[in-house]
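#structure-requests
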Amino acid sequence: MNAAFELESAVLPAETDELRREVREFLAGELDSGSFTPIADSWVVGSDREFTRKLGARGWLGMTVPEVYGGQGRTALERFVVIEELLAAGAPVGAHWVADRQAAPGLLNFGTEEQKHRYLPGIATGECVFAIGMSEPDSGSDLASVRTRATRADGGWIVEGTKIWTTGAHIANVILTLVRTGPAGESRHEGLSQLLIPLPDDGVEIRPIYSLSGDHHFNQVMFSGVFVPDSAVLGEVGQGWRQVTSELSYERSGPERILSTMPLLRLLAQRDAIDPVTLGRLVSRAWSLREASIAVATSLSKGEAPNTEAALVKDLGTRFERDVIEAARGTGVEPDFGSDDPLPRMLAHIIASSPTATLRGGTNEILRGVVARAMGVR
């Protein structure tokens, strides 16, 4: 049963097989040494700066960043192989996740040369940690209603407002923040901009939001009179909506939308704790979603904007992960945060974090609206 569960290269180029072998050997060594304990949802709840630096030293961060900016200049599919193995192993990748997944492509697509040289080398080594300031207390998936405002000042902008559910802000060196710099207009999508705000800053207060398990990865971030120079504007003033929607394709379509619960499913399979029919159905769904995710990664690497396809991957991936949790609960395993057995402990943690899965990256309702508009039925 376990053999059928391995993620082997199917639609990826054969030349990625050696890279996959290297990553697996590295992870096996880290596990043997006790470097980390596998966890579900590791890209959100698993943050280990030292582990992140190890990946940077091996060239497994900033993989698609050109060498001139400190990256590896490798392909999107090679990066896919690395993050797929890390997620399937439940490795603690949360510290660099936002920087590597979203901030780096955003800087490459919209950043100035000064911004690229300032931030991208640190992203590639794992030294520069990013957070994304999008959601607000009264503005979740509806980003067009953002109220955090940047008012024009001499040589820059003054930022006032609040962001919430900001993953990793407490360990971040930079928060890429969506703000309103002008009137919304009829579409409500006008007048938004993105700012690169270094942390810490005397005008930025970060308050922890603890999960049901007691973990701390979410935050409320309050900006009070924060001055941001013009040189810290990412892209063009007033083009924040266009920029953010392009970045969301990276957030919505990656393997993390399929593999967050994979360490849990792997444990169930290894112990023969789940019936073969249920396991087969889940693995076949995971494989189909994986191919869809790879297709989006390929499209993004060509400079395309597969926003609708990314929305589909996120929606279907979220539902798949929910079904993995339900399958685990159906085995009779009792979730237990304090258990010495990794299975009930992992199940407890993923149950506690699962309510956020349909929120981060856009609620399922918002995503279905994206798909409906693309189909011309809304």
